[in-house]
Amino acid sequence: MEIRLAHPNEIGTIGKIFQEARTFLAASGIDQWQGDYPCQVDAFEDILSGKGYVGLIDGQLVAYAAVHRGREEAYEAIYDGKWQHKNPVYTTFHRIAVSSAYRGQQVAQTFLQGLIEGQKGPDFRCDTHEQNKIMQHILQKLGYVYCGKVPIDGERLAYQKIKGKGERSLYQEINEEDRWLLGNH
Length: 185
What we know:
Mean pLDDT: 90
Low-confidence stretches: 170-174
Oligomer: single chain
Strand content: 25-35%
Radius of gyration: 16 Å
Number of strands: 7
Number of helices: 6
Helix content: 25-40%
Shape: globular
Largest sheet: 7 strands, mixed
């Protein structure tokens, strides 16, 4: 899987993936993302601020996530528990979605692990809906630990992972110009 920053011209595909995820959640009886969130505008704002990442398989966009580095007000207000470590800077993943054509193929897990390996710092956080057992399972498989609840869209379950030294990858940012010069297009 190739993981890179999302491009503005990919907004339509990202919006389609959001809609597929919304439909899947509704069919599963989960009221998470039922409404206008997330939408193409959210992805566009992520992309403009350098936070939107995509996962590609054979050149096809199959996954999306917003990657935020820094403190988040809702995460500072954790209750019914506490973070494992109170690092002043941490990385948070939001709006994680996978194309319906790739559901059930461990794409979300591979995508998130790649993002973890490619980001600096040891502290990673994520939240999900109480009914979203699939995302809870994925987070636990990746080594996340349930830490409490955060006040996002009412209430969300909060998870934290402290990255081990062995979770460093050969990940590197590739300049698109260099990629074309090397013939990897």
